Amino acid sequence: MPPAINYSVNSLQYAQTNTYRVACKHVSKVICHRLHNDEEQYLVGWKTPKDPLVPPGAICSWHGLAELSASLHHVQLYLESVSAGRRVDGNGQPTTPGLKRKSPDSSDSDTQSAPNFATSLRKDTPLPSRETSVISIGSSSSITTTSEVVSRTFEVYNGILQRKEGKILAKKSRDEGIVKRNAANLPDAPMLQAAAHATTAMAEQQIRIAFENKLGRLRNVRWENYVDNTAPSLDFTFIDSFTLRPGVYRSDPDAHEGCQYPCRQHMGQNIGCEYPRLCTCLEFAAVNEPELKRENEERYQQHLQQKQEKGYFVNTTDLPKRFPYQKPNKDNPHMPSKLQTFYLDQRYPIYECNLNCNCGSVCKSRVVQKGRKVPLVIFKTPNRGWGVKCDEELIRGEFIDTYIGEVITNAEADVRESKAGKDKSSYLYSLDKFVGDAEDLTPDTCYVVDGQFMGGPTRFINHSCEPNIRQYTVSYNKHDLRVYDLAFFAIEDVPAGTELTFDYMDKDEEEEEEVLRQRAEAAADPSNEDKLPCNCGAKKCRGYLWV
Ligand SMILES: C[S@@+](CC[C@H](N)C(=O)[O-])C[C@H]1O[C@@H](n2cnc3c(N)ncnc32)[C@H](O)[C@@H]1O
């Protein structure tokens, strides 16, 4: 019989409330659940740290929700896999699909189903100071990962966790009648049977509260779910600006080139910049070509030629430019700023004034930098996961919010994608607008925004083949071609409460007939078999998400 073993106190931190908190970083995954003494408990599979396992040889142990408050997203992942019928055993093989959920007032417990070690412990052993059982390898001396451990056929012993002199001990039970379990196939049949009768309502409620708390930090965003009891992922942090990761650089805003003379505070009847030829911020802004053509046909032709050769970065000194936004409506100051139709249609990069511009904060060329003004709702859709809508009507050209997240190198994006599988691509947004406009800026060297684990509410926006919003490039530093804002604007009037969607493939509008032809072609193409079907419901739906 192996002796009682000390194990890392880091993994279960003793909180002042007399409750241990399972440290998230040590959890591999939640494997099963049960009702134990009327308490919902979750079987936590441990990661194997280099230091002694938790406890050495242990692969999993049961914990109540109070102990799992710092690891709730593992419980959330478990509940999602159960409801999707995707549960797998320790060998990665699917187990009995789809446990039937019980209503919250269900009083079934594991004692009424097939006996398991927990039942034995409770009956015959003196009540431990902490009633949690642990499954561990009896004879294993080497430390291996959880998945390695469970893939071997071991007889395991069942023990209890005890608190003693400031440490947590895993102790083998002396109970003769204890049921030995084979760790190769967890959760095993008796566990699954017990789980099928055990409610998960308390965990679901705590997950919803935890998400509510996260969202509470955001102004003017709420969430609702009239579809089921779930909440958006807890493994997500709301941030309010880009988080730059290693290898990513952006210039200091203090160093941005701003518009100087003749710009000044409160100019242009207090609506800011008014010199479309001189303003240095507008150096690379869209040239007002009809105006130029009217004024000087020769210079106009020269400009077209240069544009064709050099793209956005042609010499436009003294040429008339287009301000990105319409002038504020003096009669109705509550009317939101609108992106000019030219920019909406042409997708031309938008240059806003910056910290070093003389025009001041009221300038009409400052919209996206002032942040979201519209109230957003994250809501559960019936067949597209979570989506986003706005509580107020949006007008065509109105700014909604930006797409933010971790900014990573393209190489890092490849690594993350290869680890996470194809669904990962949904959250990766390349900052590739200016690829080719600088020699060293290629599809392989541009940065990528990853919104999966960090971001704002726009990270929940779904795709539609007939979208009502679109993403535009907004820059405050005309010399930085690598880091700029990805800003969403309404491309049509959107009634309050309508789901906001953009086209993940950013395609231009096509005739319905052409789209239907392409959809039939895509459906017949076997290489599309593993693609996600698109549920946008649009007449011009292309059939799959990534075509
Ligand atoms: C950026 S996320 C959008 C938020 C997502 N619905 C969620 O619950 O987190 C992209 C993922 O949403 C789902 N999705 C988005 N648009 C969809 C559509 N039109 N049809 C089906 N699934 C969609 C897909 O699973 C896709 O991988």
UniProtKB/TrEMBL annotation:
Skewed-composition ranges (Polar residues): 109-119
Annotated coiled-coil segments of the chain: none
Keywords (A to Z) from UniProt: Chromosome, Metal-binding, Methyltransferase, S-adenosyl-L-methionine, Transferase, Zinc
Biological process (GO), any one: methylation
Protein's organism: Recurvomyces mirabilis
Predominant localisation class: nucleus
Annotated protein name in UniProt: SET domain-containing protein
Composition bias type Low complexity, residue spans: 129-138
Record localization: Chromosome
Domain Post-SET, chain residue ranges per copy: 530-546
GO MF, one annotated term: histone methyltransferase activity
One Pfam family per UniProt: SET
Spans annotated as Disordered: 86-138
Domain SET: 374-505
UniProt GO cellular component terms: chromosome; nucleus
